[in-house]
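WARN retry 2 of 3 for item q-0093 after timeout on previous attempt; input resubmitted unchanged.
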Amino acid sequence: MKANKQGISLIVLVITIVVVIILAAAVILSLGNNNPINNARIANFAQTKDGISSAVYSYTGSVQGKTQGYFTDDQIILGSVAKDDDATDPIPKKGSTGYRIVKGAYGADDADEAIIDDVKDVNGTAVTDVLYELDPTNFKTNIGEALPSTPVANSKWAINSDGQVFLVFAAKDNIPTWMGYDKKATDPLEEAQSNATIVSSVYYIEAGA
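OK item q-0093 returned
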């Protein structure tokens, strides 16, 4: 009877170990394909980006209200309308240069200094939209709130003339692993290409382009 109990206990132990191994394997696979920590970081990034977009849309709407719709969104964002000293209307006389939120001298007549060249998305496709680097000082001065820091180094917030916000990395290798970059993979950005948020919001500058 005692030997039988020992035999049963051994079987129970073996079954328990097998179950634990199966559960551990399932957890590892789950984390590998759908890492909750990475997902949380991506969600936080998306929330920050959307917050910037909302602030910009509110700002351009406010300026259009003050100027009776005289300037378009892109003229406000880029501050691209020079002052017209000969105008009698105070709105064109002032121009939109003081409203700019992209990089460049405050009140400058154009936004060429803010343009980011040679940009590609995570699929390796050249971005056809012209992107402009958001400027923390101009952003704070005009919108009245601080431009949030980028989630990682070697990156900057950018905007197109429609007011859409993006995160642009200085190089492809600067994209972090939690965004789907794996330098050991044949295609380092294969995982990133399966994430809609990353595909639509994260770009990089092509080295040597």
